[in-house]
Amino acid sequence: MKRIVDLILAAIALIVLSVLLLIVIWLVRSKLGSPVFFRQTRPGLHGKSFVMVKFRTMTDARGADGQLLPDSERLTAFGRFLRATSLDELPELWNVVKGDMSLVGPRPLLMEYLPLYSPEQARRHEVRPGVTGWAQVNGRNALSWDDKFALDVWYVDHQSLWLDIRILWLTVRKVLIREGISAADNATMPKFKGREP
């Protein structure tokens, strides 16, 4: 049932938002150049990898050593706007249509984090990752990693259609008031390094 709802709602959203998507594509190309989309391999259901698609929000600026500058230095004012309004996440609706993601679920993180999870934290991969989730409407990137994972696992244990509807409604509110977009002194979140020994 969840998969059918995801497919229908994501397809409708892509159609309804098609003009907005085209406008954002034009703006990203104008302000940041090509490529317009940011693609990255992320872990999905049961940790199986998939390619997540978002709108690009950072430049490719490099330091004197040829290495990419830190995210906070490459994130432009326009990129911050895209993140603050969550417009950068809209291409993930295509991931939902493909079945890589759900509208609601734990956010897909980095592949490199997989071996760092405790068995309890790893339970977040018992469901498809989401465009939004319980952790996103309860603090987003302002949460600690432990709190974020605890909320993700709580969602896994309590998921239901009504909870998903509540999360989607709360997501709209969070986007409008722009809460928890980033952790202090970070473009998004500090890197997860596993539990302290």
How would a textbook summarize the main sheet? 2 strands, antiparallel
Kindly report the average pLDDT value. Answer: 89
Strand content: 5-15%
Outline: globular
Helicity, in percent?
40-55%
The structure class reads alpha+beta
- What are the segments in which pLDDT stays under 50 over at least 5 consecutive residues? none
Distance between the termini: 41 Å
Number of strands: 4
* Strand line-up in the sheet with most strands: 1-2
Order of helices and strands: HHEEHHHEEHH
What's the number of helices?
A: 7
Radius of gyration using CA atoms only: 17 Å
Number of domains: 1
Verbal overview:
The protein is 41% helix and 10% strand. It is of the alpha+beta class. It has one domain (2-177). Strands 1-2 form a two-stranded antiparallel sheet. A two-stranded parallel ribbon has the order 3-4. Strand 1 and strand 2 (49-55) form a beta hairpin. Helix 1 (2-16) packs across helix 5. It is globular, with a radius of gyration of 17 Å. It starts with a helix and ends in a 20-residue tail after the last helix. The model has no long low-confidence stretch (mean pLDDT 89).
